[in-house]
Each structure stands twice: as C-alpha cells, then as structure tokens.
Amino acid sequence: MVEADSGPKRPRDRALRARSVVVAAAAALALASCGAVMPGGGGSSSGDGSQPTSASPAAAGKTVKVVFIGVDLDEVKKQTKLVTASVGDPKKQVEALEKWVNDNGGLGGRKLDAVFRMYDAQTDSPASEEKLCNQVAQDDKAFAVVLTGQYQSNARPCYAQRKTLMLDASLVSNDQALFDELAPYLWSPSFPEYNAFTASYIKALSQEKFFEGRKKVAIVAADTPVNRRTVGKKAVPQLKKLGIDAEVGWVDTTDIGTIYQGSEQAAITFASAGIDRVMFLGGSRLASIFATIAGSKQFKATYAISSFDNPSFFLNNPDTVPADTMNGMVGIGFHPPQDVADSEMPFPGEGVEKECLDIYEAAGITFETREAARVALPYCDSVRMLKMGADGVDGPLTAEAWSKAVDADGAGFQTASGFGNALGDGGHAAAGSYRVMRFADDCNCFVYEGDDVPFSE
Predict the structure, then answer these.
(1) What are phi and psi of 178, to 5 degrees?
(2) pLDDT, tens digit, 9 for 90 and up, residues 263-294
(3) Which whole number is the average pLDDT over 433-448?
(4) Distance between alpha carbon 331 and the CA centroid of its chain, in Å?
(5) Domain of life, per the record (predicted)?
(6) Residue 22 predicted with pLDDT over 60
(7) pLDDT higher than threshold 80 for residue 300
(8) Which residue, among 110, 112, 67, 111, has the nearest Cα to 91 in the 3D structure?
(9) pLDDT at residue 96 greater than cutoff 70
C-alpha cells in the first residue's frame, strides 16, 4: 500500500529521489566502463537472424587490420561526477601495442594495422551496436575486433555472422555454449568462461559459510540468454544440491529504467520472503543499483561479491549505497585491476603484467595504479593472444586457422589481467583461476585470501 505524502515524510522522499538520481548516474558510468558488465549475447540470433557460416576470409596481403573499440570513460565521469580511476588515452595505448607487434615480427610476419574507434556507450542500443558492427566488418573490413563496452545481445552474433574474429576485452559473461555457437570467432583473452565461474563461485561461497543456517538465497540475475541458461542449468541445480532454494529476481537489462524497475521489484520480493543472503549473476550495474535500491526499501542483507560486480566501484563511490552494504561481503576475484588496492597486491606485479606495462612504458605511457590500467591490460592480453595465434599459422591467416593455432599453443598463454590459464583443448576464455575475496573492515578494502584456485565445473 502506498501512503499519501505528508509533511514529515517529504524530507525522506526528497532523499530517495536524490538517491535515484545517483543510481541513474552510477548506471551510466557502469554502462560505459570496460569493467562494467552485462552478460554476452547467447541465444541463436545474429545481426540479421542467421547463423555464422564456417568459412572465413583470409587476411588480405601482408597487413592485418584490427579495430579496437574504446569508450570515453573520462567524459562519463564529468557528466556523472562519480569517481573511478582514469584509464588514460586508449588510442595511444593501441598505438603502443601496434608498434610492439610490428617491431617483434608482426602477426606471423604480417604487419598489424591497428585502428581505434570510440563508441558512445551512453547511447548503447541494439541498433547502435548493429551499426558499429557493420562499420567494423564492412566499412573497415577488419580481420579482427577488440571489444570493450558492447553489451547488447546482438553484438557478438553480428560480428560472427560477418566473419570477424572477436577478442572480447569486456568483462562480460560468455559461456561455453556461446563460444561454441559463434566458433571460431569469439574469444576472451582476459576473463573466465561463465559456467566454470558460476560453479566455482557457488562452491567458494559454500566453503566460506555464506549459506550457513539458510534454506534460501536470493539471486539478482540479468534477464539475458546467457544468464538464463547459466542460472537455470548451473546455479539453481548446484544450490539445490547444497540444500538451498533460490529465489531469482530477473532484471531486464535493456536500459537504466528497466534495470531500476526490475531491481526494485526484486528487493520487494526478497524482503517479503525474509531472505537475507543475496548474490548477483549478470554484472556490475546490478550489484550497485540493487544495493542502493534495497537500502531505500529498508531491505537488509549480506551480499556475495565477484569481479563481475566491480568491487572498486563500491569503494570509490560510497555515497551511492548505504554505508553498511559491504559488511560481510565475500566471494571470488579474478580481475585484480578492479578487485583489490595496490597496497593489497603490489603494483606492478611480476611476469606478464610487467611485460605488458613495459610495452606501454616504452611508448612513454605509465599508470599510477593497477585500476588505471584496467583497460590497457585487457588490450595487451588481446594483442598478445592475437599474435600467438597468428605466429602459429602456416599459410593463409583465417579465423579457422588462427583458432586451431591458439588451441594448439594456448596452454602456454598467461593473462596479464588475472590468474591462471584455461586456453588449449577447446578453451576460448583465458582466465583459469580465482582467489577468495572479501571485504575487510580494518582497511576498508577488498582483499584476496589463499592461493589461486582453478575454475572448474
């Protein structure tokens, strides 16, 4: 029942309206961020409703054109007044990677022609992503595209239908069914396969006693093909085996309005059911928006957390959610640039992360923090993976030939953006391990605990 406005309630109403404005701003920033996420396409439709064909064209001549998609995060920050580390100049970062590739043998002896295109993610829609896909595939005639900031369900099928190899540098939830459906075109050089992530996430939460004493848990879930598949076939049955029933709040992620409405309804439903444990499957916008709305509805819960929920956003923007939201947060992390502070994991690290940072430093590009490199590191992963595959091709460079080379040599690949490796033997997503992650009161930060744990189903 909705009560009529009265004098004493108006200050609170104004506060809620102000909070709603902040939520919308948070969503806008999350939508445009490389680290923000909505699940990848899934389903069976490509841009024109047909399936990708098996034969792809060879890269023409001695030059391989690759388009890098970027989003203007600094402009979004100006408009929303929200806080996030500046990612620098992605165009210059792409130029540095292009020079490194060409100075080190190119792509199997072929010259990399890197083209940078800025995408206005604030006006994201199926139509705008179809337009960008056509521009990259048909106008640019790109052999490959490095994706950031594209989250509509038609985007990845569109590139596959147009036979364009995708190095997906967005923190999106692509599952094995989608990789198989769009093969050989879709690959993730920095992040995990979504089924393995989901299974490992629930297993870790169980081990960390997140479900202890509970018979029911709430799942805030993006209503997309990949997420429907993963929640229905993986998450709910796995929870059932643990003796836990799942109350799923499906959220239409078409735009900010539908996300707000779906999150509000989910909060009301969970509160009515007396649930006090909430986990998210579907991305960082859901976590930040739901937690804010839940606070306004006086719904109190302990939340699970993962890299898909963009932990750094909660730390950087504490005014967008109630102060106690992070109390007891626990889950898993696989993407240090948006998980933990440099004080908790020294930056720069050794190994591949440092190798990527050295490439940028040679071009005069440095990063004050690991969070500031959250776009640059996945870009570097994409280029390194592209080069590894191309160097292994003997003959015409096609998506099929490149795919076979990565499958043969991928076991030696290491992502600079996370832990472990899961390429080779049919794997299309590079991140192979995670660490337990929780919010620590003493440092007011997220911390990793224990050793790397391989993703597994």
Answers:
(1) -70, -40
(2) 999 999 999 999 999 999 987 578 988 988 88
(3) 96
(4) 16
(5) Bacteria
(6) no
(7) yes
(8) 67
(9) yes
- Is-contact 422 432, C-beta < 8 A? yes
- Residue 114 CA to residue 109 CA, distance in Å, equals 15
Looking at every residue in the chain, the average pLDDT score rounds to 86
Residue 383 CB: number of other CB atoms within 10 A?
27
Give CATH 3.40.50.2300 domain extents, the chain.
Answer: 63-192+349-432, 195-342+435-454
Q: Please, which residues bridge with residue 280 across strands?
A: 220
Q: Per the structure block, which two tokens stand in for 381?
A: 């992963």
Instruction: Give 115-174 pLDDT, tens digit per residue.
Output: 999 987 677 788 889 999 999 999 999 999 999 977 788 899 999 999 999 999 998 889
Gap between the Cα atoms of 32 and 353, Å rounded: 24
Instruction: Please tell me the distance from the alpha carbon of residue 421 to that of residue 425, in angstroms, as a whole number.
Output: 12
Task: Average the pLDDT over 220-240 and give the result.
Answer: 95
The residue that leads in pLDDT, 26 or 146, is 146
Q: Which single residue is written with the structure tokens 């920033």?
A: 29
Q: Which of residues 195 and 73 earns the better pLDDT score?
A: 195
**The CATH number of domain 195-342+435-454, selected from 3.40.47.10, 3.90.550.10, 3.30.530.20, 3.40.50.2300:** 3.40.50.2300
Which overall architecture, per CATH, does domain 63-192+349-432 show? 3-Layer(aba) Sandwich (3.40)
pTM, full prediction = 0.89
Could you tell me which residues come within 8 angstroms of residue 75 by beta carbon, excluding any fewer than 6 positions away?
none
Rounded to an integer, the average pLDDT of 241-265 is: 92
Burial class of residue 360, CB neighbours in 10 A (0-12, 13-18, 19+): buried
